[in-house]
Amino acid sequence: MEQIIKEAKKTFSGLGWCYIAGTLAVYGLQLLLSLVLMRLKPDWLADGSITLIFSCILTYGIAMPLIVLLSRGIPKSRIERHKMKWWQFVLALIMCYSLVYICNFLGIMITSVIGVLKGGMVENKVVEYVTGGNMFLNFIAMVVIAPVIEEYVFRKVIVDRTVRYGQGFAVIASGLMFGLFHGNLNQFAYAVVLGMFFAFLYVKTGNLKITIAMHAIVNFMGSMVGGLLMRMIDYDELMALTQMNPYDTEGMLNLIMDNLAGWILLILYAMLLVAVVIAGIILCIVFFKRFRLDPGEVQIPTGRRFSVLFLNPGMIVFCVIWLILIVMQLFA
């Protein structure tokens, strides 16, 4: 048994080091690029479209392929494929949406409280891209590139190499590492649950196309539909007005009336989201017994599972690095 525990810890530690390498690659190259641009093209650093392009190149073109390359030495298992009917996909999407928006709301509440305590809003780069970035670039980055590469790196790579210890290990590792890799509390709050949900679908179907499609839909609704509505209500101007004078009710009312069509659409969209969240909660309750995670080929004793997953060098360093980065982002 001790040999099994040792091998399991080695697997999770190895994954941790692979993703640490990807983390260092992202931040190291971003720092290097920023220093170069500050000397040669400082105006590019203020351009959201350019910074998004560079971020995608560094993250999806260099760091994540590096993770895949380094993880090839870790043994993996084959996951049996099962078909998923279209109506099952729809029900799963509704449940997924419900969990995402509940957790997103909690994340917003927590960061808002932290913002009040520190005397300023917590920076949210995603909202900045969505409300002020180029819509076409946002679509390519968030709806096309991100779902494909992230599902491969955080679902297939992690799940294939950990599922032999049990589907629970694979689901938790995939969700946690996916959430932490986002590097901010706003996204971490829902990315962990989203990652676990996608990992659950992957271990049950063995079909990565299902999670890629669902990931793309979630990103499309959040970044494209949500982003368009935020632009229609002039969200940036509203936030600027709120920060300058939160008691200027006349100015806010005028701004709302100037963008009345956008506010009507936003309210209708919010009502739809509330309906989806309620439906998702009901579905989660109804199908609760089906969220069963099967044991793996290699059995880990209940009392040793936490230590196997988290108490190994690679995972400890990975979690500590990203927790530090998240805290730094909160108080930047």
Q: What general form does the structure show?
A: globular
Distance between the termini: 46 Å
Structural class: mainly alpha
Helix content: over 70%
Beta content comes to under 5%
User: Low-confidence segments, ≥5 residues, pLDDT <50?
Assistant: none
Order of helices and strands: HHHHHHHHHHHHH
Could you tell me the radius of gyration in angstroms?
A: 21 Å
Average of pLDDT: 89
Question: Count of helical segments?
Answer: 13
Number of separate structural domains: 1
* Major β-sheet profile: none
Number of distinct beta strands: 0
Please characterize this protein's 3D structure.
By secondary structure, the chain is mainly α. Helices cover 80% and strands 0% of the residues. Helix 2 runs parallel beside helix 5 (135-162), helix 5 runs antiparallel to helix 8 (208-232) and helix 7 packs antiparallel against helix 8.
List keywords for this structure.
332 residues, single chain, mainly alpha, globular, 13 helices, 0% strand
Question: Summed up, what is this model?
Answer:
With 332 residues, the chain is mainly alpha-helical. The protein has one domain (2-330). The chain has helices at residues 2-40, 48-71, 86-118, 125-132, 135-162, 167-181, 185-205, 208-232, 235-244, 249-258, 260-286, 305-310, 313-330.
